[in-house]
Design a protein that fits this description.
This protein is mainly beta. It has a single domain (11-73), classed as SH3 type barrels (Roll). The chain is 0% helix and 43% strand. The strands form two sheets. A five-stranded antiparallel β-sheet has the order 6-3-2-1-7, with no helix packed on it. A two-stranded antiparallel ribbon has the order 4-5.
């Protein structure tokens, strides 16, 4: 497996996509899939069925994974 350069809590910059240029924190790292989840970036609306916890159901904003080739680590000075 290749070396993975990201850790949870690192600050990264998005290089491609709708959120290009955004600097944010890594929330989750998935080394086997070669993806990261970045706080507040690549948000998708997911439909949620009514449950006991959420009796109304509706829509939920969820952060989706971003490929590591589209992310660059930002050095904090």
């Amino acid at each position: 497996m290749a070396k993975f350069n990201f850790k949870k809590g690192d600050t990264v910059e998005i290089l491609a996509g709708d959120d290009r240029g955004t600097k944010a924190e890594v929330v989750q790292v998935m080394p086997k899939k070669n993806k990261v989840i970045v706080k507040g970036c690549k948000i998708a609306k997911k439909t949620v069925k009514p449950t006991e916890d959420n009796p109304k159901g509706g829509f939920l904003d969820k952060e989706m994974p971003i490929d590591t080739s589209n992310v660059r680590k930002v050095e904090e000075a």
